[in-house]
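Dear support,

I submitted the protein below through the web form. The confirmation email said the job was done, but the results page showed an empty box. After a refresh the structure appeared. I'm attaching both so you can tell me whether what I see now is the final result or a partial one.
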Amino acid sequence: MDKLTIEYGGGLFELADEEGLGEKLLSEVLMLQSVFSENPGYIRLMTSPVVTKEEKAQLLKDSFEGKVHPYLYNFICLMADRGYFSSIPGCFDRYQECYRTKNGIIQAKITSAALLSDEQKCAIVSAVERKTGKTVEPRFVVDASLLAGLRVEAGGELFENSAKSKLEEIRRLLESSVTGDNT
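What the results page shows now:
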């Protein structure tokens, strides 16, 4: 993340948080992030030097005024006016990061060798929450190369209990015993 996205995205979160709007704006930030992701041409249009500031302001008004919270609408207009419109997705990432930090939420990538049942998913999320002491936003991924077990990446930590990791550990032990390297 660059300095601009940290400063502006963090500033948007601070304003929302001070006003007790952190969660409300989060849902709108996620919605807008999805809209911009699905319509990359809109960002190109809003950053085009061919489109005047007045035209951009009218496009924003037509697209967002009254449809998102005024703070968010004004933020988008400010970014467009200053020529930073292409940085909005990064600002939205920073907003989410600040929201998660403030609310004790971590993202977790949970990789399994096969699809997990809803009960298994709940049990894993509960275990990660107990281990980290934080609320978990899980993202489940299937990777058959694990063979069996799980790999959980959460809060900058890696918890792995997969057959693949056990086999790698055995391979390293065998290689070190053959070479005499016991590190």
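Response: this is the final, complete result; the empty box was a page-load delay. The chain has a mean pLDDT of 88.
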